[in-house]
């Protein structure tokens, strides 16, 4: 493959993502220092490529055998593991200008990507609508990293604050202290998952105002709003939206609102429709496993929606089968939180020390193709059974939940020519002026988490709660 065929698409903590303009596919390359909790930086040069290949195989297996059955095949694109011959087609200095600002501050060695990193997870470029015919009009993509969308019920083992303020909002205080972001997020995940359209819209507006790494909007794959760009109401984004959505002026002249305000409203409603969309194709792989969701719609004390006149006792729910409902019900499979999981983890570590064979048979770091991970998810959720359940299964439920607490939703939107036949284009939303917009919704970043990370979670949780308490004391 030629160097000029590659474009920077994105970067996370563990992966650098490039798109290949020739095959239209996206390639996820592991960042040697950050993937799998530094495991790769511990192996020697010769081993590294082999280890990356084996670890990527595990990611594919986990997505195929655990994540896709749980989330449903309509929302999951399986990657293909490929080896790229001839090494990487770029140097770190060539991509420097594209890297997100928050990553540039990370101390990465000059060789973020080791030259021997030839394996890549290859999947369609989800900044574009999946499937269907190709159209020439621009595509807008919206990437949302929704984070943990529920609070655990208070128990004697957990700090009380954790049942009043959600993890994301609490974590903001620690992020402010460590100067991770210049501005505190106004977003609260519990609003986005509330099922109340007004709260959901408020969550989207909050994301738009303080996107951090939770919102990224691109036009044809180029970022137009996100951590690196400002100005949600600004001219640039409005021009992009108007062109991409083909919204006509009459639709935008309502109730004295400005054109750009109306355009933003149309856009937010459109995103909501896609997040609430329930695929009608029969979902053959979706697990019939136990699928709990918090019984009541929860609110976080920190959310802006607390100051609004929402009726707290009103019950809203997100439609069963939409992407938000799938994510929330899988996240809710962890009933114990890190407070309940940590003692189980330390017991298991001791047990594994005494009998190393049991560590291997537990499959906690894979393999993921034996059916045991999915079986662990189908345990009944009642408290008595949770008590009696096998500790390894409890940890598996915790990890599955953790993966989905860290995933992102990629929505791609593209207007459809009037002449186009409905069946051909796939899911569509029709705007007030009659313009049809087709879309696809996909969940990405569904990687397994390593067993040893429980130690990090435990320490991080303590830090989050301590910082929250300290800053709350300052306010009183
Ligand atoms: O622990 P959290 O909630 O801060 O989540 C981490 C993310 O932080 P953020 O979303 O910014 O708060 C973090 O994202 P950033 O690097 O901050 O963009 C990673 O996604 C990390 O996962 P991994 O170590 O790459 O597997 C995430 O770690 P996991 O907790 O998902 O293992
Ligand atoms: N299939 C895809 N199509 C388009 N863009 C993608 C795709 N996969 C990833 N990206 C982009 O690349 C970015 C980084 O990818 P990814 O989430 O895989 O990295 P990561 O290191 O796992 O992230 P994290 O820090 O959240 O763990 C994403 O935020 C997204 O913008």
Automatic annotation (TrEMBL):
<comment type="function">
    <text>Phosphorylates Ins(1,3,4,5,6)P5 at position 2 to form Ins(1,2,3,4,5,6)P6 (InsP6 or phytate).</text>
</comment>
<dbReference type="Pfam" id="PF06090">
    <property type="entry name" value="Ins_P5_2-kin"/>
</dbReference>
<dbReference type="GO" id="GO:0032958">
    <property type="term" value="P:inositol phosphate biosynthetic process"/>
</dbReference>
<dbReference type="GO" id="GO:0035299">
    <property type="term" value="F:inositol-1,3,4,5,6-pentakisphosphate 2-kinase activity"/>
</dbReference>
<keyword id="KW-0808">Transferase</keyword>
<protein>
    <recommendedName>
        <fullName>Inositol-pentakisphosphate 2-kinase</fullName>
        <ecNumber>2.7.1.158</ecNumber>
    </recommendedName>
</protein>
<keyword id="KW-0547">Nucleotide-binding</keyword>
<dbReference type="GO" id="GO:0005524">
    <property type="term" value="F:ATP binding"/>
</dbReference>
<keyword id="KW-0067">ATP-binding</keyword>
<dbReference type="GO" id="GO:0005634">
    <property type="term" value="C:nucleus"/>
</dbReference>
<keyword id="KW-0418">Kinase</keyword>
<comment type="similarity">
    <text>Belongs to the IPK1 type 2 family.</text>
</comment>
<dbReference type="InterPro" id="IPR043001">
    <property type="entry name" value="IP5_2-K_N_lobe"/>
</dbReference>
<dbReference type="InterPro" id="IPR009286">
    <property type="entry name" value="Ins_P5_2-kin"/>
</dbReference>
């Amino acid at each position: 493959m030629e160097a000029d065929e590659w474009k920077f698409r994105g970067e996370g903590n563990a992966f650098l993502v490039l798109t290949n303009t020739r095959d239209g596919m996206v390639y996820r390359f592991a960042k040697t220092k950050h993937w799998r909790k530094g495991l790769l930086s511990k192996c020697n040069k010769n081993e590294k490529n082999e280890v990356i290949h084996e670890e990527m195989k595990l990611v594919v297996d986990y997505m195929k055998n655990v994540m896709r059955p749980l989330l449903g095949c309509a929302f999951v694109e399986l990657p293909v593991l490929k080896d790229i011959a001839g090494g990487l087609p770029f140097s770190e200095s060539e991509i420097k200008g594209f890297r997100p600002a928050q990553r540039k501050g990370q101390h990465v060695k000059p060789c973020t990507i080791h030259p021997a990193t030839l394996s890549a997870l290859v999947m369609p470029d989800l900044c574009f609508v999946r499937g269907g015919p190709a159209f020439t009009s621009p595509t807008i993509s919206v990437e949302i990293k929704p984070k943990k969308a529920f609070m655990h019920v208070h128990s004697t083992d957990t700090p009380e604050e954790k049942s009043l303020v959600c993890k994301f909002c609490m974590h903001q205080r620690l992020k402010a202290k460590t100067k991770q972001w210049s501005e505190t997020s106004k977003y609260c995940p519990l609003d986005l998952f509330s099922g109340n359209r007004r709260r959901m819209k408020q969550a989207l507006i909050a994301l738009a105002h303080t996107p951090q790494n939770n919102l990224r909007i691109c036009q044809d794959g180029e970022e137009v709003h996100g951590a690196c760009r400002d100005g949600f109401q600004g001219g640039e984004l409005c021009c992009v939206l108007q062109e991409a959505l083909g919204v006509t002026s009459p639709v935008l002249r309502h109730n004295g609102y400005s054109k750009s305000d109306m355009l933003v409203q149309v856009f937010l409603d459109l995103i909501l429709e896609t997040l609430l969309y329930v695929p009608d194709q029969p979902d053959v792989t979706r697990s019939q496993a136990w699928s709990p969701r918090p019984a009541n719609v929860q609110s976080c004390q920190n959310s802006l929606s607390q100051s609004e006149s929402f009726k707290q006792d009103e019950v809203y729910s997100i439609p069963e089968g939409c992407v938000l409902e799938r994510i929330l019900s899988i996240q809710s499979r962890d009933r114990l939180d890190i407070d309940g999981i940590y003692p189980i983890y330390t017991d298991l570590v001791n047990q594994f020390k005494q009998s190393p064979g049991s560590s291997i048979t537990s499959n906690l770091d894979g393999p993921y193709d034996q059916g045991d991970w999915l079986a662990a998810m189908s345990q009944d959720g009642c408290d008595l059974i949770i008590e009696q359940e096998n500790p390894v299964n409890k940890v598996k439920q915790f990890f599955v939940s953790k993966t989905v607490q860290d995933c992102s939703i990629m929505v791609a939107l593209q207007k459809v020519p009037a002449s186009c036949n409905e069946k051909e284009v796939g899911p569509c939303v029709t705007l007030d002026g009659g313009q049809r917009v087709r879309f696809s919704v996909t969940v990405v970043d569904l990687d397994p988490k390593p067993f040893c990370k429980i130690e990090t979670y435990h320490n991080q949780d303590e830090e989050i709660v301590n910082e929250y308490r300290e800053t709350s004391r300052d306010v009183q």
